[in-house]
Design brief:
Elements (H helix, E strand, L loop, with lengths): L7 H15 L3 H18 L5 H16 L3 H18 L5 H17 L2 H18 L4 H16 L3 H19 L4 H16 L3 H19 L4 H13 L2
Amino acid sequence: MTEPELPPEVVELGDRVFALLDEGRHEEAEPGLREVLRSAERVLGPDAPVTIALLDDLGGTLYQMRRLPEAEAMHREALARYHRSAGVDHPASLHCAHNLGTALVMRGEREEGLALLEDTLERRRRVLGEHNDTATTVGTLGAVLFSLGEHARGLALLEGAHSWFLADLGRQHPQTMDVCGNLVAAVYESGNRARARGMLTQLLSDYAQVLGERHPTTVATRARLARMRF
């Protein structure tokens, strides 16, 4: 029996939506993403991998727009569907669990979010081993722990994630630069301000090369470096 497929016009819409998301244009992408998700639920079914991934993507889009209650709801529903269809330890389930844990922390539900991130890290280490997805949770958990006052473990996790991404993806990969930004803050707050300024100077140069001088992230990093000089 042939598996159902999304109509070509829906696939084309999805391509446009994800191009917008790649450019950081989340508000423009959201309506189209919802439309693609509705089509996937109707044509493929609610528990199809593509449908659940789209639901999780919608949660991530809402998270970027700081619509945190809605983001949490989307991630929770996606995680429930993944658990039902693929199992708790499936990489897709763990990806969604990471997203939900992050959204919970950002929303202020720190105890539940932190517990979920800890559990996700343990499972990713067991299921995936040394892997970029594992390092992503290491870096996120490190940033959360440092912000909550667990400076020693938080800094160690951030250093570990940054070292992994540097070696595996290179200095100018988005994941490396993201975790570097969090590591800079931890290093600065730990008192090693000269190292933090040096790292941020290099990060600013990387953002300018990769994103452009006028990109909001480049501009914000330049302002951040200026503040560090005082």
